[in-house]
Amino acid sequence: MTSTHAQLAYQNLRSRLIAGEFAPGSRIRYGPIGQELGISATPVREAMGLLANEGFVELVPQLGAVVRTINPDELVELYEMREAIEPYAAAKAAERASEAQVAAIGRALGRMRTIAGKVAKTKNRQAGKRDTAEFERADLGFHMLIIDATGNQTMVRSSESSNALVRVFAAERHAYDAAIMESTCDDHAAIFDGIRSRDPERARDAMQRHIASGLQLTLQEIESRETNRWEVS
User: Fold this and answer.
1) Residue range 129-140: average pLDDT?
2) Nearest C-alpha neighbor of 168 from the set 78, 39, 35
3) Bigger pLDDT: 228 vs 153
4) Whether 68 contacts 51, CB under 8 Å
5) Which residue among 10, 49, 76, 168 is buried most deeply as judged by most CB within 10 Å?
6) What mean pLDDT is reported for the chain?
7) 30 or 220, which is more confident?
8) What's residue 153's pLDDT?
9) DSSP letters for 156-221
10) For the segment 9-26, what is each residue's pLDDT rounded down to a tens digit?
11) Which range is most confident: 70-84, 145-159, 189-203?
């Protein structure tokens, strides 16, 4: 980054992409984003270059930045990367996490429980955009706090990318309802219990089950969407 304005644009856009504000395939215009942030289009363009390098957007001639779409095979690859890294990270966190880090992981889980409980009380038990975005942020925080507790910064950088990309395409995978949120919280509670009890094997196994479950849910939703696309009502 060559300017604080570019850093501002990068952080803003990355957070909004992860929160699902920009649908896959949609165009992000430099000028309007710059106006929202009170900066020129130039630092926004610079930020987009970095986001393209990280795989969030594609830079298309005559169009500019377009939010990437990914196919099921690419999504599987992202999950496979997470499945290779995060169970190991959970085990190491159980061994290495400080008490302050364990407490922070617990707070992230607590935030997710609060949002899930709120959604469960709504009439249709479906999360709106704001609750979905907050849940995604807490979910990402939970996973990244665990990885950070390993003390391995190379692992942190690699995992942040794969975790963030999965969340960019969350809207394409499934809508959040109370049942999905509660199931996610239960998975996280099992991981957290393993870390808090300093049981590496328990933490590792719980994380592996959680990521495998997320992949299965995603693939089922993709298959359902493709089937519904061609059904005649």
Assistant:
1) 88
2) 78
3) 153
4) no
5) 168
6) 89
7) 30
8) 93
9) HHHHHHHHHHHHHTHHHH---BHHHHHHHHHHHHHHHHHHHTT-HHHHHHHHHHHHHHHHHHHHHH
10) 999 998 888 777 888 889
11) 189-203
Residue 118: CB atoms within 10 Å: 15
Measured over the CA atoms of residue 140, residue 142, residue 146 and residue 148, the dihedral's sign is positive
E-only strand ranges, the chain: 27-28, 57-60, 64-67
Q: Which helix (H) or strand (E) is 41 found in, with range?
A: helix 41-53
**Tokens coding 175:** 């809508």
CB atoms under 10 Å from CB of 196, counted, come to 17
Q: Which tokens belong to 220?
A: 């089922």
HSE, CB side, 13 Å, CA atoms: give it for residue 214: 27
The answer to whether the beta carbons of residues 26 and 64 sit under 8 Å apart is no
- Tell me how far apart the alpha carbons of residues 132 and 73 are, in angstroms, rounded to a whole number: 25
pTM: 0.81
β-strands 57-60, 64-67 pairing: antiparallel
